[in-house]
Amino acid sequence: MSQKLSELIDLLKGHRVYIQTHNFPDPDAIASAYGLQVLLGKFNVKTIICHHGNVERVMTANMVSEFGIDMTADSELKYMTAEDYIITVDSQKGNANILDLIGDEVAVIDHHPVFCEVDDYKYRDIRMVGSCSTIIADYYRQYHIEMPRSVATALLYGLKCDTRDFTRGVTQLDVDIFSYLFPKADGQLIRHFQSGEIEFNELNAFADSMRNIEIYDGVAFAFLDFTCTDAFIASISDFILNVDTVNFSVVYTRRSDGFKFSVRSEIDELNAGTIISQALKDVGSGGGHKSMAGGYAAESNVLDISIDYNKVIQNLFLDIIKNIPYKGYTPKKDGTGNENTVI
Ligand SMILES: [Mn+2]
What's this model's pTM, rounded to 2 decimal places? Predict the structure, then answer.
């Protein structure tokens, strides 16, 4: 860890402090905010957890109510001023997935690659590990701080979700933190959270989206032609990656003025974050990790009266991917790549 916990605590003393997650917070973001709130509370630093966008998944909402985590939506924030301090967790100032609130973003604790360089953080702990929960748990471990069972359970659930049960983005620290959290956490509660990740009322939509998959050399595209949450798009993208012939999945849906994307990769050479940022750079923006990423494209940049927008979207990605050699992809004999598979 780059800076000492005492530096963070000294920085925050005497200020009203908010812990802000990314928009539409997921289990890792919520667990990190909760774990950090309890940790800072032990040093008499009171904090308010805030976020923009709903807690979308039933099981995520269940975790919030199970542990009594107090989360305030930005629309309910009454007192925040420009003098108040914000710590962003599982997200960074300037990224598209976090609303810029009026308070001062003085600190960041995150596990995402840096896309917008911000040099005025007074405290910064960004580590490329499997989950933000890992980093928060590491503070307890390093400083021998007693961890309540609820915090251990939330952090372990966050770690399991973001690493997809230790199958993506796992580092040695994640494994060490797993063995640290495991005896402290409530395993049965985690199983209960995990077993409800697809909601009953989504089953029809889920089945429809499976019928519309198109696969080109291991790259799968699925358009979800109905209203759905960001979390739902992400879980479909996770699911499609389980198909044996799929190495890379791109799932997207319509929003009021554009398209929302969730991308997953199981191949190191196909970096999901880099590929989506390049694919969408002229039509919107995207970014994320090697194995999971997200993005947005403005409708006016993708809709073309002469071409099906699904083809436009597929080509945006395939034009980038065709130039990346990877195992499982067979280049055409003339060396021109897979251009012929599209259009
Ligand atoms: Mn995360």
Answer: 0.77
